[in-house]
Amino acid sequence: xxxxxxxxxxxxxxxxxxxxxxxxxxxxxxxxxxxxxxxxxxxxxxxxxxxxxxxxxxxxxxxxxxxxxxxxxxxxxxxxxxxxxxxxxxxxxxxxxxxxxxxxxxxxxxxxxxx
Amino acid sequence: xxxxxxxxxxxxxxxxxxxxxxxxxxxxxxxxxxxxxxxxxxxxxxxxxxxxxxxxxxxxxxxxxxxxxxxxxxxxxxxxxxxxxxxxxxxxxxxxxxxxxxxxxxxxxxxxxxx
Lengths: 115, 115
Hints:
By secondary structure, chain A is mainly beta.
């Protein structure tokens, strides 16, 4: 069965310090992996996507994620947090071999940035 | 342009009302999705349309009725809703929706309150 685990339901960092949001997945085949961000009362915005072309994926707003097959992880990082990064972050898996673009959402990590 | 638009932004309705949510995209995508999102939770899939045909109904109650009049438009007709149906309703689209790990692009959502 496919699943996504986000290890921290809430992360709090100081402005200017690094951000690490953790994601582990379970999938029978090589999946597509995504990180989305949702600001309060907004829709979901795509941060980045992994599709096997490169294990280190760069996204928007300075975020990047590294795919590690041996660890089944896809952690999201940013070198320096900004106040505008405070939001909910979802790790998403799109397993291969489904009949439509079924995606599986992780439970989400709420990021707080302290001034 | 990777924009999905949704109207209205907010909707308040009584349990006997009939209302509709509208979603539109002009990216040439042939797959469109409706999701329901409760507070502090990830989105839950409701319906998938692929090439204007309903391909997935995730056991949604019949008081929700989707419609895809053409490849750019997706509607969700609401009738006799319950207070527990209050949520953020998100629309998304992807290129073909054929299980190839495509990116889903989300709209800003409609915030629905059922009284």
